[in-house]
Design goal:
The complex is a heterodimer of chains A (215) and B (551). Chain A is 27% helix and 16% strand. Chain A is α+β, with helices and mostly antiparallel strands. Chain B is built from 24 helices and 15 strands. Classes of the chains: A alpha+beta (215), B alpha/beta (551). The complex binds flavin mononucleotide, iron/sulfur cluster (2 copies) and FE2/S2 (inorganic) cluster (FES) (2 copies).
Chain lengths: 215, 551
């Protein structure tokens, strides 16, 4: 089938998502919960694009292409919503993310340099019990990438999302740390984490040095 | 959420056996709390990952609040907010000597919050173990330990021949099995009847059934959504408890039309009676061969399993409902896939509201035309509405579509008690807009209510009188919104918390920031919780801006 991306006609297979179609044709959309190795999740709502005739912007990672769809990656409303979401995300962290993190990169792409929101932030909660993996819960933005990587890629099921609403987070085992869980130390979670909430221990010092540099 | 976890859940689990969630609820009910050992034990028994069971245990309200021998749950729903004093919860805590979310040192008593017990006709309401007491003096009775089961006003109907407010007769199923093919029931009756879903989205039930019927898959499921979490609403409660046969017949008819032999009802745990009554009704129907194998000698078989929720508003959203039904965390999933293609245990599944299903027996028995003739206007069938305790005659009433909101409030419900004046009404739950008194002449129907930023929703009509503080109301609604956010999508997870915080002190609120936040919620959220919570706030901004403390 054919869709239009930013005015250019492209051929896609049925079942292709808008994000896949855009990336497959050299385009770019910012995203936080998407990882091409994992099933689309639709949680962060940063991958918004405009679609002609739709009542509002649509998340490109979970929306499927339809014949003749006209997609815009520079739709003003879509970019405004995406930036507003990233501004909210920055407000839940006790400190700005390191500049090399995916979150900081996305913020920069969307021109979000600060957050106006004050209020509750995630409490500092550092877990260094594992020999290779460090977990800094306060930096977790509940994107679920680590949980899905552990489930879909590794099949280890060591991780879960916990809690509800603003107080959602992620943990290993029965909140018992990686070592006391079914973790096989593959590092898939650290590899996909967009904030360094989970990071390889040997990179932790570097990550800490960089904290705050993303603002 | 995590694709392999769902496969894992299914592998070791017969579809109608109790889930890990049911087991966790049972442990909390028996021992008052969940230990890590309990969680590991359930994981081992159900062959689920320990982490996943821990995730479930930290999601549901029922599993989080520790319980003493006497567990007191104070309703924080909107009807009880309107009826109660701001300090009622504090008085109960002081009187019982224990704070919210705590157990007394000797383990004798605990207090927790809950959202809507379905006694909004008699607010304020408190649940004392399984006794629900409500109305004047309830706070004192809780403190003294003398609570009594509150009464419920009888249901009424304004129709010449009530459809939904009478016990089921199974005439629809009898006729369908004798005279209609599944295809006839779907095409000739259901689709022609244009029955719109009563659960909020008003989607035509016949079309949904057709998707599921045509979806590839041997095994299909029908799920009745008995989560009725909307504070102020007790319509589905009345139906489940007073006309359970009507619901079971509707489920069986859906099964017949769609080609499914297994139905579920997911009942919220705030309605302990509903679960008990429905289970008895299933047994009774099985004994009479109205459910079970080869119903009434036909080759159609259909079973119904009753499953209890564990305290979460968003579990009413259909994908979250199915997650809860499978015993998992009740978070929303992005669609597609729609439940009609991939639902319970990844099989095609119809999810319908309780009231929607209760309309089906009439359609099957009397036909589509009779159903369309129940209301004079565009919408087919009748609608159940219910009123909060501010009205002279609260209760659940079956009405034709098209009466004005004023007629409903003033004539059907008799206006407000003690000569109070209506300042505004909220229709159809927390995601519905708020209609100011000046717009009471709006017809009660899908189209006209949408034009004024409101919706039919579940059909609850909750009046605020002239003394209601609109800023406090906004804060109340947003507190609910933030507490109930499932946490899956970022706009709602963080945005509702920020919106609640904006209203939580006495500082002036920057109108521009607030409106930008509402837009982000509306356009960005994954489900109608986050995109709908701004609706009442928009109404307040439009009709009562001077009362919100804006700058
Ligand atoms: C936050 C949220 C809560 C919901 N709660 C309920 C509910 O309590 N009962 C219900 O029937 N539908 C509820 N719904 C709607 C369901 O997702 C679904 O549309 C409905 O059950 C379908 O049934 P119907 O087509 O018969 O209306 C809710 C939706 C959302 C987004
Ligand atoms: S730990 Fe990282 S990858 Fe996992 S949910 Fe949190 S932010 Fe996402
Ligand atoms: S809008 Fe709220 S309730 Fe709905 S998916 Fe997002 S976080 Fe969950
Ligand atoms: S990348 Fe699409 S919603 Fe997160
Ligand atoms: S019983 Fe309290 S709001 Fe319904």
């Amino acid at each position: 089938m054919q869709v239009m991306i930013d005015g250019k006609a492209v051929e896609v297979e049925p079942g292709t998502t808008l994000l896949e179609a855009i990336q497959g044709n050299g385009g770019h959309v910012a995203s936080l919960c998407y990882d091409e190795r994992l099933d689309p999740f639709g949680a962060c709502r940063v991958c918004m694009v405009g679609v002609e005739g739709a009542p509002g912007p649509l998340p490109s990672c979970t929306t499927l292409c339809r014949e003749g769809m006209e997609i815009s990656t520079s739709d003003e409303t879509a970019l405004r919503v995406a930036a507003a979401v990233v501004e909210l995300v920055l407000s839940e962290l006790p400190e700005a993310p390191g500049e090399h993190t995916a979150l900081a990169v996305v913020a920069k792409q969307l021109n979000v340099t600060r957050t106006r929101w004050t209020g509750a932030v995630h409490e500092k909660d550092e877990d260094l019990r594992h020999p290779y993996l460090a977990f800094r819960h306060e930096l977790c933005i509940s994107c679920g990438r680590c949980v899905r990587a552990c489930d879909e890629v590794q099949g280890a099921f060591a991780l879960t999302v916990t809690g509800r609403g603003f107080y959602s987070n992620v943990t290993a085992g029965v909140d018992s740390g990686f070592a006391e869980s079914s973790c096989v130390s593959c590092g898939a979670c650290a590899d996909t984490c967009p904030t360094d909430a989970i990071v390889e221990l040997r990179l932790l010092e570097l990550a800490i040095e960089q904290n705050g540099s993303g603002e | 959420m995590a694709s392999n976890l769902i496969k894992l859940t299914r592998r070791h689990h017969p579809v109608n056996a109790p889930t890990a969630l049911s087991k966790l609820s049972e442990i909390v009910a028996e021992t008052g709390t969940l230990t890590d050992e309990d969680i590991r034990g359930v994981a081992a028994d159900y062959r689920l990952p320990e982490a996943s069971v821990y995730g479930i245990a930290t999601f549901y309200d029922d599993l989080i609040a520790p319980r003493g021998e006497r567990h007191v749950r104070i309703c924080t729903g909107t009807a009880c907010f309107e009826a109660g004093d701001a300090d009622s919860a504090q008085r109960i805590c002081d009187g019982l000597g224990v704070g919210i979310g705590e157990v007394s040192d000797d383990g004798s008593v605990s207090v927790a919050e809950t959202v809507c017990l379905g006694f909004c006709h008699s607010s304020p309401a408190v649940r004392d173990n399984d006794v629900i007491d409500a109305g004047p003096g309830v706070i004192e009775r809780v403190i003294e330990g003398t609570t009594v089961e509150a009464g419920e006003p009888p249901m009424r109907s304004l129709l010449a021949e009530p459809v939904l407010t009478q016990p089921g007769t199974w005439a629809g199923l009898r006729r369908a099995l004798a005279e209609l093919t599944p295809e006839d029931l779907l095409q000739v009756e259901m689709k022609a009847a244009d029955l719109r879903g009563r659960g909020g989205a008003a989607f035509p039930a016949g079309n949904k059934w057709e998707f599921a019927r045509n979806a590839p898959g041997e095994q299909k499921y029908i799920v009745a959504n008995g989560d009725e979490g909307d504070p102020g609403s007790y319509i589905d409660k009345y139906l489940m408890e007073q006309s359970p046969e009507l619901l079971l017949e509707g489920l069986a008819l859906a099964g017949y039309a769609v080609g499914s032999d297994q139905g579920f009802v997911l009942v919220r745990s705030e309605y302990p009676q509903s679960t008990i009554i429905l289970r008895e009704a299933v047994e009774q129907a099985e004994a009479e061969n109205l459910l079970g194998d080869n119903i009434l000698g036909s080759d159609f078989s259909f079973s119904v399993t009753i499953v209890e929720g564990a305290g979460s508003y968003v579990v009413g959203e259909e994908t979250a409902l199915l997650a809860c039904l499978q015993g998992l965390r009740g978070t929303v999933s992005a669609r597609p896939p729609f439940p009609a293609e991939r639902g319970v245990y990844e099989e095609p599944t119809v999810v319908n509201n309780i009231e929607t299903l209760c309309n089906v027996p009439f359609i099957a028995a009397q036909g589509a035309e009779a159903f369309c003739n129940l209301s004079p206007g565009d919408s087919a069938g009748s609608k159940l509405v219910c009123f909060n305790s501010s009205f002279v005659n609260p209760g659940m009433v079956e009405v034709p579509f098209g009466l004005t909101v004023r007629e409903l409030c003033e004539e059907v419900a008799g206006g407000l008690k003690d000569g109070a004046q209506i300042k505004a009404v909220q229709i159809g739950g927390p995601l519905g807009g708020i209609l100011p008194a000046s717009l009471l002449d709006t017809p009660f129907d899908f189209g006209p209510l949408a034009e004024v930023g409101c919706m039919v929703g579940h059909g609850s009509i909750l009046a605020f009188d002239q003394t209601t503080d609109m800023r406090a109301l906004a804060q109340h609604l947003l507190r609910f919104g933030a507490h109930e956010s499932c946490g899956k999508c970022f706009p709602c997870r963080i945005g509702l918390q920020r919106a609640y915080e904006l209203f939580s002190d006495d500082e002036p609120i920057d109108r521009e920031s607030l409106e930008q936040l509402l837009e982000t919620l509306e356009l960005g959220s994954l489900c109608a919780h986050g995109s709908g919570m701004p609706a009442p706030i928009r109404s307040l901004l439009l009709h009562f801006p001077d009362e919100l403390g804006l700058r």
